[in-house]
């Protein structure tokens, strides 16, 4: 019988967040071919459907990311957790734990994934990162990042110039991270798409390697790294500190990836070989607290040492807007937007006061 751990409210919120991320991205067909090693072929009905040689009554719907296993479940569609649980005869709780471990540690460069093009009714096998096609211009992406997210104009221009940001043909903004084993080679291995409209569309590109993250390299010789749970948060940190940025910034693909992304970069990123300080800056919510605790527990148990054998310090950073202790800030982008708001109002106020003084001076003359 499975020993189910009693979770605190914070732990429940964290688990809910990471399971939601997994369900959004992990496909049933990936588990079938890469975990269970099933051999599949295309259905004569449509390339949208795949059938395993080993189970004649099992059909995978690539478009909807569902499995139909008539011999065991009739016509009821299964999601990836239900499929794993049914196939291995394990509890839902155990299935989630096993799939989470697989999902957050896998390297898409080493596995095959099936992609389906609805407009062409074609499916094909892919390995590694698949980037969406670039739009003719980046107007909507620029407007979203500077007007909605309040990133600095100069930062957004540099990100586009460096190939870190572009707008795709669906008008999503795409953030691209390059292989940290050799940043100068500029091999894209990590990418996230985010909607620029009213929707909350936000998903990793197919084949994105979560553990790599998006690494923003500061000047050589920098010995500090700041780790954020999202790309927008990391870019917000850079904007907030644009006049005095004293750290590299490592941006992750969600709260559930922070520990693995940090560990991968500490092991493989040459820019961190002389590292002295790590600052963890997650969102200020329950999930962020749990992620921070996991990182701190790992650090306390194993420690972090640079190439010189010196201990690297680790600090969990909280943040807020100076002078407004009761103002609720939920993440670094929140802090940036609040900072920009008060700065813009300060400038307007000073301009108004200057105009009033000039008007009074003219009246006295």
Task: Tell me what you see in this structure.
By secondary structure, this protein is an alpha+beta fold. The protein has 2 domains: 10-127; 138-340, Dna Topoisomerase Vi A Subunit, Chain: A, domain 2 (3-Layer(aba) Sandwich). Helices cover 38% and strands 19% of the residues. The protein is built from 11 helices and 16 strands. It has helices at residues 9-25, 28-35, 70-73, 80-88, 92-103, 139-148, 153-161, 231-240, 258-268, 286-302, 332-364; strands spanning 40-42, 49-52, 58-61, 66-69, 77-78, 113-117, 122-126, 165-167, 172-178, 188-195, 202-204, 214-216, 224-228, 248-251, 277-281, 313-316. The chain has a 5-stranded antiparallel β-sheet. A 5-stranded mixed β-sheet has the order 12-14-13-15-16, with helices on both faces. A 4-stranded antiparallel β-sheet has the order 8-9-10-11. A hairpin with a 6-residue loop joins strand 1 and strand 2 (49-52).
Could you provide a short overview of the structure?
With 365 residues, this protein is an alpha+beta fold.
Count of distinct structural domains: 2
Write down the Rg.
24 Å
Q: Averaged pLDDT, please?
A: 91
User: Which structural category do the helix and sheet elements fall into?
Assistant: alpha+beta
Protein name: DUF3991 domain-containing protein
Pfam families: DUF3991, Toprim_2
Organism: Thomasclavelia ramosa
Domain DUF3991: 143-216
